[in-house]
């Protein structure tokens, strides 16, 4: 066990036990698959965006929920945050390499769903 995260030793090295409530990897999965986490990762897949641009791109999200979601994703190392020292401060967000790696299958899932829905509506 490493810290409070439950791990198991495997041939490839350490593996997290995501079914254990204290698992760090479980927290990251919870943040990624939260109501808004997926949309933030998908919104940042093509471009880095400022806070207000993210809020505009994800309809229905409140500033409070966007801020909480971004805070969790930054803490998990999926999203980076850059603050420009202007008045008011301009804050830009983008995907880290880890965020791009995690976001890729989410984007693929989103694309598969929208393709299937498009073919249903035309067929």
TrEMBL record:
Gene3D superfamilies: Winged helix-like DNA-binding domain superfamily/Winged helix DNA-binding domain (1.10.10.10)
Pfam families: HxlR
Alphabetical list of InterPro entries matching this protein: HTH_HxlR (IPR002577), WH-like_DNA-bd_sf (IPR036388), WH_DNA-bd_sf (IPR036390)
Keywords for this protein: DNA-binding, Transcription, Transcription regulation
Residue span(s) of domain HTH hxlR-type: 23-121
Keyword Transcription regulation belongs to the record: yes
Protein name: Helix-turn-helix transcriptional regulator
Organism per entry: Streptomyces tauricus
